[in-house]
Sequence to fold (500 residues):
Amino acid sequence: MSPAKKIILLVTGLLVLAAGVFAYFRISKLKAPARDPLDAVPSSAFCVIGADNPHEAWNTLNHGNLVWDALSVTDWAHEVAATAAETDSLLTADPEAAALTRDQPCWISLNCTGADRFDYFISFSLSTASAGDDAIAFLQKHAKENTSAEKTWKQVKIFCFGNKNGQWCAATEQGIVMISGNEELIKSSIDQLEKGATLKNDKTFAQLMDTRENSATANVFVNYERFEVAVKRLSNESAYERVENIARFASWSELDLSFRPNAVLLNGYTSAPDSAAGFLSVMKGQTPQRIEAAGVLPASTQNFTSFGISNFGLVMDRYDAFLAKEGHSDERRDHLAQLKRNYGYSPADNIGAWLGNEMVQAEIPSPGGGMVTIALFSAANTAQARSSLSSLELKNDTSATQPTADSSGYVIRKTPVPEMLSATFGPMFSDLAESYYTIINQFVVFAPDENSLRSVIAANINGTTLERNRSYAVFVTNISSEASITVYVSPSRCENTLRE
Fold:
């Protein structure tokens, strides 16, 4: 065989081999699964929502849920509903698009951007890693009157669609479709995919991922530190101090979303690692207790927070440790030492000696207008509670503030130690620096003035307590009767607070 024929045969063989290799990798790419769309979610998100079947989740929400129906009268919810309905019908009507997205998980995140903006980010996986071009073709086909522009970031094409009402952008990478109203979020997502720096690297988030219920309609994750920034952007400056407590509560929550005809339920787990300064860590080690304060609180209660306490000493130790991480433990110790010198008060010898299993902070309407903060502490022994508080009175000059008896026989006394509650349990009781107290059933009730206490007494005499309120009775059928922390809010009574 001549040298020329050998060269031709060699080249032909190499071409065949190259074609085979190319075909192999081409077919492999076509069959390769898409990457997890969670990897594309911006790690700066303050809220992340995932659904394994977004089409089914939307249908469940949009057909017969009274809560969503009520929300849909607001402009923002109406816009969300209209956009989602149009998108859902479009995907359902287009067989190719339906095939690309069928049974594929989807994630939606809410993100703070710029100095004062909020933006959404959507990511979902396709049936294969190579289906990205088909997805972009679908978006371009249905852009309608929207104009489109093509950009490139890290060799990934970003398509931006826009009209006079704004713009939104889309890109595909490794079988993930990314959509956002903010082009910069798309770019940061592409960077994440390249570097592998995803939410999965957050240890607490990863742990909560393992707790989620796969059968739930959707899974909702909230990061408290970033959520505080988001709420601040919606709040007046007068509410900033209250909003700042959000970041101090915990690290992450994972909530499994499910719907009933008249309810939206979110059940899950919240994490407050010991290494982080999270207030929730104060309640670690406490056995859940029965929620009984609703039997004393007025039906007009705007909101209350109940803490189930099984070990008072442990709560005090953990609260001190929490304040130490924030650099305020010495301040509290000095305050308590001052109360000990001036009034003979110490948490362990006084409140700790009679405290039962529930501590409550609540806001109720004031007889003089507005809202007032009250506190309720269950007593393991009401006689001991009365005796302990009376002994503090005897140590101090109370001649100017003799106890008064309500017409019903309840005795109202001035709290003998100013700032006793806030020094012991923190700023949630700062409005009760000067207060009055009485005993109702098994609870010692504190209020900033006598008239507010009388309104609580009247509610108990008249049988108009929260426990007997029909709406509350229906509500509590959806929650556990025992808890470490219970937060109740009545939105219809919170109009002014919500506006702020």
